[in-house]
Structure formats: structure tokens, C-alpha cells
Amino acid sequence: MAAVFVVGAAVVAYGWLSDREANRRRREDVPIGEGCPARVDASVLLAADGALAEAAVFAAGLADKAFANDPERGRMVLADAAVLVCEDEVAGLRELSGTVAAAAGRALVVAAPAFGGDCLLDLAVNAAAGRFRGGAVRVQGADELARLAAATGAEPVRAADLKAGLSPTLGACRFWVGGAEQSQVVL
After folding, report:
1. What percent of the chain is modeled with pLDDT above 90?
2. What is the pLDDT of residue 30?
3. Cβ distance 166 to 102 under 8 Å?
4. Whole-prediction pTM value?
5. Fewer beta carbons within 10 angstroms: which end of the chain, N or C?
6. What is the mean pLDDT of residues 99-112?
7. What is the spatial distance between Cα 96 and Cα 87, in angstroms, rounded to a whole number?
8. Backbone angles phi, psi at 76, to 5 degrees
9. What radius of gyration do the chain's Cα atoms show?
């Protein structure tokens, strides 16, 4: 009986490690730039740049450079985006699956203080492959999260509520322009 348990545990551990390594390799193979489905359209760039004079600035930088769909400037530019504001760490992609569906085809910005496990890796691979339109930003501090939620009309949600399948109230913005350290949001 003990031998069966040991062999079973070894198989599970091997599967977990090999999946993790495969995801890491997949991410390294994802092209960002010319010809990539994640690249932002030039007309959106022009419209976003023209609207930045009226943008609110938040301490919310890109959680991963893979979300930069304007690689020349190292920024993420999204038009007509839904905004999910999470109060705590988003641990996995499963927590976000219902919210991605609720965004109804719009780009989705996931704003949280932290992202755990392979969540960022999964989001980045899906964004680069064109299966997820949007990106993730790390927001610096609870006050900044509250300010972002108030500005966009989002209700901050706990990760436990997302796991339970509750539908959060998403915020919205005309343009989201996110860089390494901060985001400019046109409401």
C-alpha cells in the first residue's frame, strides 16, 4: 500500500513539474511584435495618444512585459476596455475565466496588487496567441486600488469571490495606456 502511494505521489509531482516547465518554454517561444495577433492597431495608437491629455494617472505598471502590444514604446494600449479591480492576489487563471466571459469580447484589464503561480504566464501566452484581449497590471497599494475602482466604476472584488464564481462589477475606460511603472487611463 505504501509503495502505491509513493509511486502515485511521484507521478503527480513529475506531471506538475513537466507542465510548469512546458508553460515556461511556451512563454519563451511567444513572439511579441510584428505580425503578432496581440499587436495594437495604428488607428488605436493614434486615438489613444490624442486622448492622453485628459488621462488620469495611476501607479499601476504592467505585470509582465509580454502585455506590451506597442513594443516600440514598451506599453500596453487598449481601447474600450473593461476593468477588473482585485483587492488581493489573483492566484490562477481559473479565477478569471468567468470575468473574461463577462467582458463580452471587450479588452479586459486585470488590476491587482499581485499575481501568483503561473497566472501571469497563462495570461501572457493567451494574450500573445490572441485568445485573451487585454493585460494585467500591478497596482501599488490599497489607496491606489480604491482610486482606480472609483474612477472606472469597478467594484473591488476579492479573489475568493472570483473563485466562488461571483460576477464582479467591471469598470470601463475609453483607453488604457499602461507602461512599466504607471498607467494612463482615459475615462
Report:
1. 54
2. 44
3. no
4. 0.80
5. N
6. 89
7. 14
8. -105, 125
9. 18
